[in-house]
Every structure is written in structure tokens, then in C-alpha cells.
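A.,

Following up on our hallway conversation. C-alpha cells first:
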């Protein structure tokens, strides 16, 4: 029998020690989910590959940075090909389940990064006719990067030749503007303008390397290099003023809407990257089926309120149930605490105490509300409500659009269990996967909870249900109008009318929603990702929890600890029935039946 000597000198046998430890453990409350959490972020064995890939790619991006360089483009393509080959050498069958998921995630990223690089180069090639001076500039920059000796006299002559090419291109374009406006559409002209600016900045950086350090070089090259910069600047300005700005339909008033549809081909490529095995047309049909359920439930709530099937009157009644100016922060706090209590009482998921402790509120400016008419969230929930600088009609629309019952479905979307909890967990579990960040997981999870809470009778009244249904209808509409816009089947103005007439938006708020969707800065699939991601997560929950493989709490905690990855890969990580071959191809049909029930 072994013995242990305690700090104060007493010696006891191991059996007694185990009895003491057992007694201590009985008195300490242990949360099983917390213990699971502590061991859930183990390395999958691919971390060295991830780190090396990031480091190598960073080196290449910093070194091969000459704009429009064919050599730089090819070197990066070679790198992605090399990385796929190295990834292929890994013993896929010998990896853990998480390791196999990481493998497939990284392979998907490399493949689509390479595709994006090829597509960008092809788009650049379409505008090279406007940049006849590209090759000699790139040649000079590449020579410098190779650290070849620079003969100031020869370089000066080379710069004068380049200036001549720029001047000739400027004169040629200036003399044929009418024809050029027919040849060069807005997108191509914008790309040409950006690339001229890129070359201008690259020439500036190149000359700064020598200037002041090589007096003889500066003596020869300063003036011709400056003339090249001047010529590039003027040429870029000409392209912008005559081809880009004139091609853009100017917004008329504060509600003018401008966007760039990307077309069916790019939508399909984006869906492939997100591992969504549906076409845009199929996704629109899914949204239409969900709309049918929403309409049925909205009519039921309307009848309960005494408005018959006139859901617009019922919704108008709910919109007017808003707090007074200045009271919105108090309402947000009450709604946030209500959601937290509801979740914890039903043991639906684990909410870390620090997560509950550290969210905060800020009020949204009037200008920002032109793009975000409703709340945005995370650790900070940014609240839309009228400011004193708004026009009277805008104040009323903002209050109606952020009423008590609409807000009741928004607060938990933005805070807990939505975006704040997501951000808290993704910073702590498998953080290396944040590189794969996707709105289908981020927004899908938050909307999934709107669906789940509906099923759990979170709405207490017909007004509550109308508030939740407003957002549910809005998510359906987002799929239809955002994909329709990018496919060219729905114009921006028609999208605004659609949101007003079909969902019940205030026109100011509908305009802001469409503006945010089409003006850029968002993935073209972002707006569709809310409903589609939620349907994916719900389908997965119904299988795993419905078959008794997980409890609700285990499922929800597991989703958060997998981090932000395409839901198809979340399914692969959690559902052991899914086979994972090395050449895995997405094919999950998560919305076979359609409709919300």
C-alpha cells in the first residue's frame, strides 16, 4: 500500500487519500458540459499543416505583389497546386473524425481560392487593351525585385518610353469616348481604373526605394518616373470620369439604390464554395414553401386578434406597440434576460457566466440606420430607434419597425443564444476554424433559434407570434429578392416593393434592407444564408436529437464548439452516419419536404 506525506507532515495511506478526495468531489458541483468543453478542442493533427499553409501563403502574397504580373499569378497558382498535392499525401483514413473534417475544409478553401485567383486574372485580361503600358511597367518592377543592378540612364529612357505609351493611350481614349462607352461597361471600366491606380502606387514604391539612397539614379530617373506617375494618375481619372461615373446610374435622393448583379454562374460558384447542393432556382422554391407556412400562421394570429385574415391590419396594430423615446435600452435588457432565463430553465444549451456578464448596448446613429434599420449584434448590440435629428416620418417608421414584439425576436438573435454567444464560443473553441467563417453558420444559427423558440412556445401572445413571423417572412423574402437581384429577375426598386407588400416593412426600412443587400461589402449569398442555414441546422437537430443520439443541450453546445464552418461539414462532424471519403462531395438535400412543419 502506498503512502502520501501531506504539507503539515501527516502521513496517510493511499486508500484513505482516495476516500478524502472522493468526499471533496462530492461537495463540488460539476457541470458535465463544462468538463466536455475542456477536452473538446484537442488538436486534430492538422494544425502544423494549417500553420505552415498560412505562413507560406503570407510570404508569397507579400513577395509576389506586383499588379498584373503574369509571373506572380502563376507562382500563386503553382502554390495552391502544391498545397493540394501535399494535403493529398496525408493519411486521411488515419485521421480522427475532426481531422477528416479539417482536411475537407482546408481542401475546399484551397480549391476555391485557386478558382478565385484564376477568375480574377481572367477579368484582368479583359481590360488589358486599356492598359498597353502594363508589360514595360511590370518588367521594371520585376527587375527591381530580382535585385538586378539599376542603370539610372537606361531606366530613365525606359520610363520615358512608358510615359509615351501612357500618353498615347490617354489620347486614344479621349478621342474615342463615344465608342469606348459602348465597349467598356461599368464593371470592366472600374476594374481598369483600379489596376491603373495599382500600377501608379507600385511605381511610387519602386522609386522611393532608390530616391535619396542612390543619388545618380535619382538624378536620372526622378523626372521621368514622376511623369509616369502623373500620366497614370491623369489616365485613371479619365477612365473614372468618362467610363465609370457616366456608366453608373446616379441615385436620385437619399433612397437611390445602386448595385451590381453578379449573375447565375458566380452564384453557382459561391454556392459550391459554401457546400450547398442546390441551384439558385431550387433555393427560391424552398423560400416560397416556407412563405406558405408563414402566411398560414400569420392569418391564424390575425384572426385571434380580431382582424380576420387581414394580416396587414393585425401587423399594423403590433407595430404601434412600441416604447416611448428613450425607453428602448430598458426594453432590450428585459428581453435579453427573458431569453436567457427561458434557455437555462429548459437546459437547452450551456451559457458561460462571463458571456452573460459582458454584453453591452450602444445606440445606432441616424445615418447608419439608413443601411441598418434594425438591430445588429454580437458582444455589442447596436439598437435602432429614432434620434432627434431624423425627419418626423422617419422617426415614426423607426419606432414602428422596432416595436416591442418585433424586438422580442431580434434581441435573442443578436445576443444570447445568437451572435454574442457565437462570438464568445468561437474565440474559445477551435478558433483556427474561424478562417472558414460562413454566414450560413453565423446567421443560420441565430435564425435557427427563432424557429426553435417558436416550437417551444416562447411567443406568449398573438402579438408575439406576429412579431416573430414578421422576421420569418423577411428571411424568406431575403432569399427571393437577393437571388432574384443577382440573377437579374428582380430589380432593386421591385425588391423594395416586394418587402413592403409581401412582408409588411415600412418603406424606409425596406429601402435600407435592399440597399444593404446590393451595395457590396456582403457576400451575394449573405441574405439567403439566414433561412437556408437555419433549415440546415434544424434538419441536423431533428435527426440527431430526434433519434436520441444527443440531447438538445449536447447538440447546441457541439454546434458552437465546432466553430463557424459550412453546415454540410458541421453535419459531417456530428453525424457519424455520414460517410467521409477523401474525395467527399457535398450532396445533402436538407429541405426535401419543404415548409416549416
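Then the amino acids I'd put at each of the 597 positions:
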Amino acid at each position: 500500500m502506498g503512502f502520501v506525506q501531506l504539507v503539515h507532515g501527516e502521513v496517510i495511506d493511499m486508500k484513505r487519500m482516495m476516500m478524502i478526495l472522493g468526499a471533496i468531489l462530492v461537495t463540488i458541483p460539476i457541470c458535465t458540459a463544462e468538463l466536455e468543453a475542456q477536452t473538446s478542442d484537442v488538436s486534430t493533427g492538422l494544425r502544423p499543416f494549417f500553420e505552415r499553409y498560412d505562413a507560406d501563403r503570407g510570404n508569397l502574397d507579400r513577395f509576389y505583389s506586383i499588379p498584373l504580373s503574369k509571373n506572380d499569378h502563376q507562382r500563386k497558382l503553382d502554390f495552391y497546386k502544391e498545397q493540394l498535392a501535399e494535403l493529398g499525401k496525408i493519411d486521411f483514413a488515419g485521421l480522427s473524425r475532426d481531422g477528416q473534417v479539417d482536411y475537407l475544409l482546408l481542401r475546399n478553401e484551397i480549391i476555391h481560392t485557386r478558382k478565385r485567383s484564376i477568375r480574377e486574372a481572367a477579368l484582368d485580361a479583359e481590360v488589358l487593351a486599356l492598359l498597353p503600358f502594363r508589360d514595360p511597367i511590370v518588367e521594371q518592377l520585376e527587375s527591381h525585385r530580382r535585385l538586378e543592378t539599376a542603370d539610372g540612364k537606361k531606366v530613365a529612357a525606359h520610363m520615358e518610353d512608358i510615359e509615351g505609351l501612357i500618353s498615347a493611350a490617354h489620347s486614344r481614349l479621349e478621342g474615342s469616348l463615344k465608342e469606348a462607352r459602348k465597349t467598356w461597361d461599368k464593371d470592366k471600366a472600374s476594374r481598369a481604373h483600379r489596376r491603373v491606380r495599382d500600377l501608379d502606387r507600385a511605381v511610387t514604391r519602386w522609386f522611393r526605394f532608390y530616391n535619396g539612397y542612390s543619388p545618380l539614379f535619382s538624378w536620372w530617373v526622378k523626372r521621368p518616373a514622376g511623369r509616369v506617375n502623373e500620366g497614370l494618375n491623369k489616365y485613371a481619372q479619365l477612365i473614372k470620369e468618362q467610363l465609370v461615373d457616366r456608366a453608373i446610374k446616379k441615385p436620385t435622393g437619399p433612397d437611390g439604390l445602386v448595385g451590381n448583379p453578379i449573375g447565375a454562374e458566380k452564384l453557382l460558384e459561391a454556392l459550391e464554395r459554401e457546400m450547398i447542393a442546390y441551384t439558385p432556382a431550387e433555393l427560391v422554391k424552398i423560400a416560397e414553401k416556407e412563405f406558405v407556412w408563414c402566411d398560414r400562421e400569420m392569418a391564424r394570429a390575425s384572426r385571434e386578434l380580431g382582424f380576420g385574415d387581414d394580416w396587414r391590419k393585425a401587423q399594423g396594430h403590433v407595430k404601434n406597440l412600441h416604447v416611448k423615446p428613450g425607453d428602448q435600452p430598458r426594453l432590450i435588457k428585459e428581453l435579453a434576460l427573458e431569453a436567457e432565463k427561458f434557455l437555462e430553465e429548459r437546459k437547452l444549451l450551456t451559457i458561460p457566466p462571463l458571456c452573460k456578464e459582458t454584453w453591452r448596448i450602444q445606440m445606432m446613429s441616424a445615418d447608419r440606420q439608413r443601411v441598418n434599420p434594425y438591430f445588429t449584434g454580437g458582444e455589442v448590440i447596436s439598437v435602432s430607434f429614432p434620434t432627434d435629428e431624423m425627419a418626423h416620418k422617419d422617426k415614426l417608421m423607426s419606432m414602428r419597425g422596432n416595436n416591442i414584439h418585433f424586438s422580442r425576436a431580434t434581441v435573442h438573435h443578436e445576443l444570447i443564444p445568437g451572435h454574442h454567444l457565437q462570438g464568445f464560443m468561437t474565440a474559445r473553441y477551435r478558433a483556427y476554424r474561424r478562417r472558414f467563417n460562413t454566414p450560413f453558420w453565423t446567421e443560420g444559427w441565430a435564425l435557427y433559434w427563432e424557429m426553435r423558440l417558436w416550437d417551444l412556445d416562447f411567443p406568449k401572445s398573438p402579438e408575439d407570434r406576429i412579431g416573430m413571423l414578421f422576421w420569418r417572412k423577411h428571411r424568406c423574402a431575403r432569399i427571393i429578392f437577393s437571388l432574384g437581384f443577382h440573377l437579374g429577375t428582380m430589380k432593386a426598386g421591385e425588391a423594395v416593393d416586394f418587402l413592403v407588400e409581401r412582408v409588411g416593412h415600412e418603406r424606409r426600412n425596406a429601402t435600407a434592407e435592399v440597399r444593404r443587400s446590393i451595395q457590396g461589402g456582403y457576400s451575394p449569398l449573405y441574405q439567403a444564408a439566414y433561412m437556408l442555414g437555419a433549415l440546415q441546422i434544424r434538419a441536423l437537430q431533428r435527426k440527431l436529437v430526434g433519434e436520441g443520439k444527443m440531447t438538445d443541450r449536447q447538440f447546441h453546445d457541439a454546434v458552437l464548439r465546432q466553430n463557424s464552418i459550412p453546415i454540410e461539414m458541421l453535419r459531417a462532424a456530428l453525424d457519424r452516419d455520414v460517410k467521409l471519403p477523401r474525395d467527399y462531395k457535398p450532396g445533402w438535400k436538407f429541405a426535401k419536404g419543404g415548409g416549416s412543419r
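DSSP finds 25 helices and four strands in the chain. Curious whether your intuition agrees with the design.

B.
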